[in-house]
Design a protein that fits this description.
The protein has 337 residues and is of the alpha+beta class. It has eight helices and 14 strands. The N and C termini lie far apart (53 Å). It is an enzyme of class 1 (oxidoreductase).
Length: 337
C-alpha cells in the first residue's frame, strides 16, 4: 500500500460482513481482504450484513433518550466514578490529547459510560486495578428494563467485534484466532451520547477533531448526522447515517499494533441540524494487562517497529486522565493532599 493512497477518499466505503457469520472460507477471506484495503486507505467503513436486529439498536437509543430526559439531579446520582462508569455531565471532556487539532473548548455533549462488568468481589476490583469495578445503573423504577436492554446490546456488539478481530487477523495473513488471546478479558465501553444543537461558534464541537484511543469502534448513529472524517487533502467528509449499519473505525492502538499499516483517521461531530443527536459508540479494546507490540507481519524485513511495546492499561489511563475533567480534578486533589 503506497503512502499516496492513504487518506485518499471522498466517501466512506461499505462492507457486507455477512460472510463472517458463515462457514464459506473463501467468502470469509475475500471479506477480510476488502476490510484490509479499507483499513489501510480510509480507516473508516460502514459495516452492514450483520445479524443485530434494528429493534435492538433502537431500543438502546430509546433507553438513552429516557435517561438523558431525567432531571439533572437524578442523572448526577450516577456521576462517573473512578472506574470510568456512569454519567459525564455536559461539557465534561476536552480532547487535549488530540493529534489533529488544538482543542481548548469542551465537547458539547453529555454521556453515560458502561464498561465490561466487574463485580465488587472480583479480584481485579478488590485489588483496585484501574477501570475494574461494577457499572452504575439507573433505578429500575424510573427506567424499567434499562439494564437488560444495555447488556443484551453489549453482548451482540461484542460478538460482532470479535468477528472483526478475526477478520483483521486474516487480512494480515495470520490465522483467524491469532489475536484472540489479547481479548480474553476485553476492555469494552458502551458510551451513550446526547448532543444538543450547538451554536455557531469558532472552535466549538459536539466532539472535537480526534482519533480514538483503542482497537476498533463500532458506532450506531441516529438519523440526525453530524459525523465527519478527515481525508489527506484536509477535507471533512460526511459519514451520514445508513440504516442497519455501524460505522467502524481504526483506533490508535490498532494503528500502533499494525505499525501504522492501518490508519487511525481523525473525525469530529458538529451538530447544527436544529435537532438533538443521539449516538452509541461501542469500543472494543484489548485486555488491560496485555502488552501491545508491533505485529511482526507488519514490520518490513530489516526495519525496526515504529513504536515501543506498551501495556494497554497504562496507555489507556494516560489518555483518559488527560481528557476528562473529573480525572484531572481528582489528580489535583491527590497532589495537594
Amino acid at each position: 500500500m503506497g503512502e499516496r493512497e492513504r487518506g485518499d477518499f471522498s466517501e466512506i466505503p461499505i462492507l457486507d460482513v455477512s460472510a463472517l457469520y458463515g462457514a464459506d472460507q473463501d467468502a470469509i477471506r475475500a471479506t477480510a481482504a476488502t476490510l484490509r484495503r479499507y483499513l489501510e486507505t480510509v480507516g473508516f467503513l460502514y459495516v452492514v450484513g450483520h445479524p443485530i436486529p434494528r429493534a435492538d439498536v433502537e431500543a438502546v437509543r430509546e433507553a438513552s433518550k429516557r435517561f438523558f430526559a431525567l432531571p439533572e439531579d437524578e442523572k448526577l446520582k450516577l456521576k462517573i466514578d473512578r472506574n470510568f462508569r456512569g454519567y459525564l455531565p455536559f461539557a465534561g471532556s476536552t480532547i487535549v490529547t488530540s493529534s489533529v487539532a488544538t482543542v481548548s473548548k469542551p465537547n458539547q455533549s453529555e454521556s453515560i459510560f458502561f464498561m465490561h462488568e466487574v463485580g465488587e468481589d472480583d479480584p481485579r476490583a478488590l485489588a483496585e486495578k484501574p477501570l475494574q469495578g461494577p457499572n452504575q445503573w439507573p433505578d429500575e423504577a424510573a427506567l424499567g428494563g434499562f439494564r437488560e436492554t444495555i447488556e443484551n446490546y453489549v453482548g451482540e456488539m461484542s460478538t460482532l467485534a470479535r468477528k472483526m478481530v478475526g477478520a483483521i487477523a486474516l487480512s494480515l495473513g495470520l490465522p483467524a484466532g491469532s489475536l484472540d488471546r489479547y481479548f480474553d478479558q476485553p476492555t469494552t465501553f458502551l458510551r451513550l451520547l446526547h448532543y444538543p444543537t450547538q451554536p455557531h461558534e469558532e472552535g466549538l464541537f459536539g466532539s472535537a477533531p480526534h482519533t480514538d484511543y483503542g482497537f476498533i469502534t463500532l458506532l450506531a448513529q441516529d438519523d440526525v448526522g453530524g459525523l465527519e472524517v478527515k481525508n489527506k487533502a484536509g477535507e471533512w467528509v460526511p459519514a451520514p447515517p445508513i440504516p442497519d449499519s455501524f460505522v467502524m473505525n481504526v483506533g490508535d492502538i490498532l494503528a500502533r499494533w499494525s505499525n501504522d499499516q492501518f490508519v487511525s483517521t481523525p473525525h469530529r461531530v458538529i451538530n447544527r441540524s436544529g435537532r438533538e443527536r443521539y449516538s452509541q459508540p461501542f469500543f472494543f479494546d484489548p485486555s488491560m494487562d496485555e502488552t501491545i507490540a508491533a505485529l511482526p507481519v507488519c514490520v518490513p524485513a530489516g526495519a525496526s517497529p515504529k513504536y515501543e511495546p506498551v501495556l494497554y492499561g497504562d496507555y489507556l489511563m494516560e489518555r483518559i486522565d488527560k481528557n476528562y475533567h473529573y480525572r484531572k480534578k481528582k489528580a489535583a486533589e491527590a497532589a495537594s493532599a
